[in-house]
Amino acid sequence: MLAAEIQKRKAERDILLMSHIVLGYPSFDACHSIVEQMVEAGVDLMELQIPFSEPIADGPVILHANQRALAAGSNVDRCFELAARLAREFPIPFVFMTYYNIVLQRGLELRGRY
Asked: Which residue among the candidates 47, 77, 89, 109 is catalytic per the annotation?
């Protein structure tokens, strides 16, 4: 499904733009607004990062965003809720970025739950 959407968009343009956002940073309301602005600006695909307490593979900017999002109350359920809302409201594909620790802790049977 994702590959087909990317191919469809590639047929319309030579270059596609993918962006990234840490869910809950600086707030969930701000994230919604930022996503809306990015979609309006022409973003083709967006990576939604579920914050993690020790994002060792990320640089200092994303580390800071993860820490601030968690301190403000971001959690996996709220991230899934916002992601579902974004997917309903905006005509671009969204993918999750997270650490396997979160997936392992929650279990792999989440498929189709949201």
From this structure: 47
